[in-house]
Amino acid sequence: MKLLLFSDIHINRMACEKISEKSGDVDLLLGAGDFATVRRGLKKTIEFLSVIKKPTLLVPGNSESYDELKEACQTWDQATVLHGSGTRFEGIEFYGLGGGIPVTPFGSWSYDFTEEEAEELLRDCPANAVLISHSPPKGIADVSSIGRSLGSVAVRNFIDEKTPKLVVCGHIHESAGQIVEIGGTTVINAGPDGMIYEIKE
Q1: Domain boundaries, given as residue ranges, for the chain
Q2: Which of 15, 37, 60, 164 is the most exposed place for a label (fewest CB within 10 A)?
């Protein structure tokens, strides 16, 4: 199955157009959050992306909430929004975890969760699934511009315990495009350019 992975669009029309162009070559798109910027512009980004006719799974980033993303996608028939929930596509389980984890220093506008809340949200994710998480796992594709590791301990622990097939994330822009293998799991910080990845069924 061919996937198109992306994250952190932040209302970038050119990035949306590139993703749309690439979508014809894949079976399924996975968007790992931050379609808006500081809770603004979400509807515009979804308007740009909604020309895509392939099934698309999205999770909220910290720049938009789950409810805001669900509402924005109401007229995009191909989009499914996941957060603490999952779906099956062509025999493979996909599960979503949105928001900034751990809580960011950005203040009240940021859609964030504690590590404990993230653990609870991940509770129903089956082993060997594909996890779409806005936040990267701690220590993997999570290094900021000043060299700090900003990923989630809960996501890292989930990988260590459940060995998902693939983790698609974003959030830390400076680590976009990184692909890391850990145990039997591939972790990809997708970024806004759109990355095609083939998953073995």
Answers
A1: 2-198
A2: 37
